[in-house]
Amino acid sequence: MTLMSALLLSTLLQSGAGLMPDPDRPSPFPASDSEADISAKVAELRAFFGSSEQDTRNTVATAQQRALIERLEARHAARLAGIWVDNDPGWHVVVRLTGDEPVADEVHGGADGPQYVHFRTGAALTEAEMQRRMRAQHPWIRSQVPHLDALALDVRTGELVLDVEEGHEARATVTTVRDHLEAQLGFPVRVRWQPASSQRYPP
């Protein structure tokens, strides 16, 4: 990443992360997704930063994607089971929803090419409900799973993922705990076995 691109992204993060934006710097967000507004924003940022066309378009596109995600989260809050970015290649947002009612995919104008939104239905629980259940079980998980390194919700699959340090004792315990935990949570649990500490951090 070039220094100029980093400065542009810093402006983006200030403008989109709830921080007080620098009044002396232009916002990276165009007035709309129209080509005219995008071109005007690119020209404004290039004039201010002296940045390249590609760096500037990438920054504006990133700002647009951030704003798009916020709109999608608000619009589908009641059904939202997960939302993530898949930008290799192109600009793509994937939205996972509860229920079977279909939602048509979307295409939005972008500074660095079209921005696509892909909807996947069929999830049983919203992300908010899965997080609530996970927090309720968190103390029990910590007390029952030996050598637990981390736990997190994988919104792409709707699974609770446990990172557990490898070991014969851990495997025997975790198998039993996982079955009980899945029954308590009401959604799947996946275990990712990690190398033992002595292997990961040799003396």
Question: What do these coordinates show?
Answer:
The chain is of the alpha/beta class and 203 residues long. It has helices at residues 3-16, 35-49, 53-75, 127-144, 168-185, 197-200; strands spanning 80-85, 91-98, 106-108, 115-123, 148-154, 159-165, 189-194. The strands form two sheets. Strands 1-2-4-3 form a four-stranded mixed β-sheet. It has a three-stranded mixed β-sheet with strand order 5-6-7. Strand 3 and strand 4 form a beta hairpin. The two termini are 36 Å apart.
Features of this protein?
single chain, alpha/beta
Could you give the topology of this structure?
Blueprint: H1 3-16, H2 35-49, H3 53-75, E1 80-85, E2 91-98, E3 106-108, E4 115-123, H4 127-144, E5 148-154, E6 159-165, H5 168-185, E7 189-194, H6 197-200
Parallel strand pairs: 2-4, 6-7
Antiparallel strand pairs: 1-2, 3-4, 5-6
Helix pairs in contact: 1-3, 2-3, 4-5
